[in-house]
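Quarterly update, task 2.4: adenosine monophosphate-bound model.
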Amino acid sequence: MDVSVVGSIALDTVETPTGRNEEGLGGAATYFSLAAAQFAAVRLVGVVGEDFPAAHVELLRSKGIDLDGLERASGKTFRWTGRYHEDINNRDTLDTQLNVFEHFHPKLPPAACAAPFLFLGNIHPSLQTEVLEQAKASFVGLDTMNLWINIALDDLKAVLRRVNAIIINDSEVKLLTGESNLVKGAKAVRALGPRIVVVKKGEHGCLLFGEDDIFSAPAYPLENVVDPTGAGDSFAGGFMGYLAGCGKVDSASLRQAVVYGSAVASFTCEKFGPDRLAEITRHDIQQRFEEFRKLAAF
Ligand code: AMP
């Protein structure tokens, strides 16, 4: 089955302790699509400006990603600049230029509307609702961020009532629910709508809360993290892509989806931008999946 995604497509400038990458391909929907395309047919909906390099479009196309929903608007592409600390788990956003993203109202082409799986990337929750109004998906996942919890909580709560799954950071669970205990926090998030809650804990892995089920997956112990940008979006792409590829959402496939998401995200961190993600094969992912199995076996 196929999966549609709506979110940012960006030119990112990123500085990490190992180097700097100027105006490289980025954006949440980009990472999501490259990851999900390893498992299922992906339909990308987003906007870029006139300055977006043709080579980036070609890369996405070469991975079989459906770009009918990729709008090219007059103006400049969304830009994001971030700098990672010596402790690479922390970063500062130095600059965000919304550019063509500022007036973006996603329009889903017919095939994107019809996809059974849909991922609402991290955009304003009212835009996420606009997408939901158009889509016919039977399984919807959502990402959000501190900003929307702080400035658009009512809109966020409205869209949360209508989604099946949320992928969220531990700090965002605390901000959204006021609960510092993650088990209580996840319960409170489930009460807002999504029956499946995936809590990412960065280098400490993630927790999946479903119907009567809690699953804990480690993060892959990477020795050299070059650039963690997009790891969260790659996780979401691996998770949703795997579920779409299986065509079913049950306890076993959800657990596997979490491990595939973690495996793909670990590759993303190995090089700048989506470079590593773009070169890996399904076989590489399967090998890492098996390493995860060994890692957690006892
Ligand atoms: P992550 O590392 O998973 O948080 O994702 C980083 C990606 O999100 C980068 O490629 C950015 O271009 C993109 N991004 C950063 N800020 C925003 C924002 N406010 N809205 C949408 N996308 C963003």
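Highlight for this quarter: The mean pLDDT is 97.
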